[in-house]
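Final paragraph of the annual report: two paired records, presented back to back.
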Amino acid sequence: MARHAVTLSRIELADWRAVHSWASLVQVCRFQAWGPNTEEQTRAFVETAVEAWARSPQRRFPYAARCEGDVIGMGELHVRNRKHQQGEITYVVHPRVWGQGVGTAIGRELLARGFGHLQLHRICATCDPRNLGSARVLGKLHMTWEGRHRHTALIRDGWRDSDVYSILQEDWRERNDRGADEKPVL
């Protein structure tokens, strides 16, 4: 359980400085193909994330994770295939709150929105096998490890593998006692 009350809200242009406070850190982007970001790169990323809310049909749902008004992370839900009801979640958390349940809280809310309002059937996530913190989050979300994709991204220290996790709507509902009519606000 998160030691912080974490809420997700649409990311805003004004959030770019908070996003940059972690996107510029080596330890945050260690397992990512992006970063450490310059201020310009972070502003451009946030602008694109804000614009995603105006697209139709919307496929990308980027959120700022807030605790007592402070942006302490981000979560994003991507609709990968509407016809087959497939989605993917991603998240990032400021290192000052690592290990405090924030990533798990973000993930739970993203899954609730994906399976609730968007009525997705399957949601997946990936992480670098060396990213033990992220793997723990995916385990706490009761996502199933499906396997490893080799050399999926070229990052600073070489080729990165990606472990793939997923959860199905019926598994989520069974675990979380969510009714079929529940539709979280996006």
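The closing record of the year follows.
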Amino acid sequence: MRWDRFFDDLEDQLAAEWEAERAALESEAERLRLARVDLRARLTGLAREAEAPVTLELADGLSAVVRIAAVGADWVAAPESDGARRLLLAPIASIRGIHAAHGDLLRSARPATHTDRLAERVTFALAMRDLARRRVGVALGLSGTGPESSGRVLTGTVDRVGADHLDLALHDAGSPRRAGEVQSYRMLPLAAIAWVRIDAAAGVPVV
């Protein structure tokens, strides 16, 4: 046996073992990284990376085809892709499933190159306060557990927003919030809201 060939074989074997060990360590590190990734991070990834619309399945049974435009602290803003020029705001807690292309799902799990610290602080309650300030007409889907609430849609204007609830003046969609147009008032826990829909023509900025 030629000794130089013998040592070449040993070097090749050692290199292969090192490569296998490195791949195993990288695979374990990736599994540990993914174990720390939450749904908000994946949604942020879809907002950044998705090439196709996604379908959000929400707590009241609504399935909406959207493009996620922005992700707040605990909610998403997503223009709907049905051509109706509507913006959907949905608490992350109301999302029951997300249909997306496989490539987009994989890309959404990539490590973020940067994070939007301001968006991370914009809560759903703060977004509702902004709608109240703007006096924007909205439609709200309710996600209560009873048959009388789940799947129900209310239209009106948000009058005021507390720490965990809001007051809604009920009136027909498209009507201004005038005393003569208001039919009744409703106090709603924010946790009972599956989604909020506004007309894109309202000019509400997205975080």
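The helical segments are 3-35, 39-49, 102-108, 117-121, 124-134. This concludes the annual technical report; the extension proposal builds directly on these records.
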